[in-house]
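Translate sequence into structure tokens.
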Amino acid sequence: MAPEASTSTVVAAFAAEFRRYRSLAEKATAQISWDDLRVPLDRETNSIAVIMKHVGGNLKSRWTDALTTDGEKPWRDRDREFIDDFADDHTGREQLAQAWAAGWSVLESQLATFTDADLARTLTIRGEPHTLALALARSLSHTAYHCGQIVQISRVLASRAGTQWKTLTVPRGGTKEFNRGMGYEPGSGS
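Result follows.
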């Protein structure tokens, strides 16, 4: 029996993966200081704060009225996303948190309205038509790419600061223990 057209199995899978990458980035950044969030690893890379600002801006632009307006909004200033213009105090960290959360809020609100029946619908990004399925796949890939950067840079900066890094995934050498904790035994078929 085929699932009903109004189900959202695929959309729910996208939503779960977006949440997973957001969580990884947030758990990583919680392990470093505000000052370290603003440190690029070299002159040609972006700081974590800049990457987070960019992700927030991208998600907000892409998913605001996604099915009725172009995903590259006229109000978005993408180039400005790559400039660290945060205040040097607690206010700056709040500005960053707001920019990050604003993008995620728009994405999550839109995902809650989609069903799998919408996946073939067309939307545009920079005038180029995409199916919703393609736009979600591209957005997830883009977001995961940057969340991976955030985790890696956080880990490097924590190490430089002498901070004990709290592993976000299965720790090295810990696969068997992790699997046991999940109730999984390789080769058992369950």
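Note: The chain has a mean pLDDT of 93.
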